[in-house]
Amino acid sequence: MTTRVDAKGKTYTDIVRKDEIPALIQTVSNLIHGHLYLRPGLRLKDEFNGLAEMFIAVTNAEVYNANGQVLVRSEFLTLNKNQIVWIRPDEEQPNPPGAAE
């Protein structure tokens, strides 16, 4: 990413484009349904393995407990990658554990 500074001291950076991906994320204690953001052309795995950042951004997040009850709804949360057990892309709202089908 390039950074430019104009004569008045204003800083300009490149626009970073990302694709919004709905995902299910199982953490050590909760299931999260929300949206992640990937750079175009990258797989979910590439994004997680290729970055040294400790946290990921999740938007429009719903956090479920083990009984399938919504604990938290949040427009934005950051998630420590060390707490993730598994993650998968998802196109639909989840059927939380224990929910009737």
Residue runs with pLDDT of under 50 for 5 or more positions: none
Number of strands: 7
How much of the sequence lies in strands comes to over 45%
Strand order of the largest sheet: 6-5-4-3-7
CATH topology annotation: SH3 type barrels
* End-to-end C-alpha gap: 47 Å
Kindly report the average pLDDT value.
Answer: 84
Shape: elongated
Largest sheet: 5 strands, antiparallel
- The whole-angstrom Rg is 17 Å
Encode the helix/strand succession as letters: EEEEHEEE
The CATH architecture classification is Roll
Indicate how many domains the architecture comprises.
1
> Structural class of the secondary elements?
mainly beta
Count every helix, treating DSSP H or I runs of 4 or more residues as helices.
1
Portion of residues within helices: under 10%
User: What is the CATH class designation?
Assistant: Mainly Beta
Sum this structure up briefly.
With 101 residues, the protein is mainly beta.
What does this structure look like?
7% of the residues lie in helices and 50% in strands. It has 101 residues and is mostly beta strands. The protein has a single domain (16-89), classed as SH3 type barrels. The N and C termini lie far apart (47 Å).
Task: List the topology elements.
Blueprint: E1 3-5, E2 11-13, E3 19-27, E4 31-38, H1 44-50, E5 55-64, E6 70-80, E7 84-89
Antiparallel strand pairs: 1-2, 3-4, 3-7, 4-5, 5-6
Features of this protein?
SH3 type barrels, elongated, mainly beta, 101 residues, two-stranded antiparallel ribbon, single chain, five-stranded antiparallel beta sheet
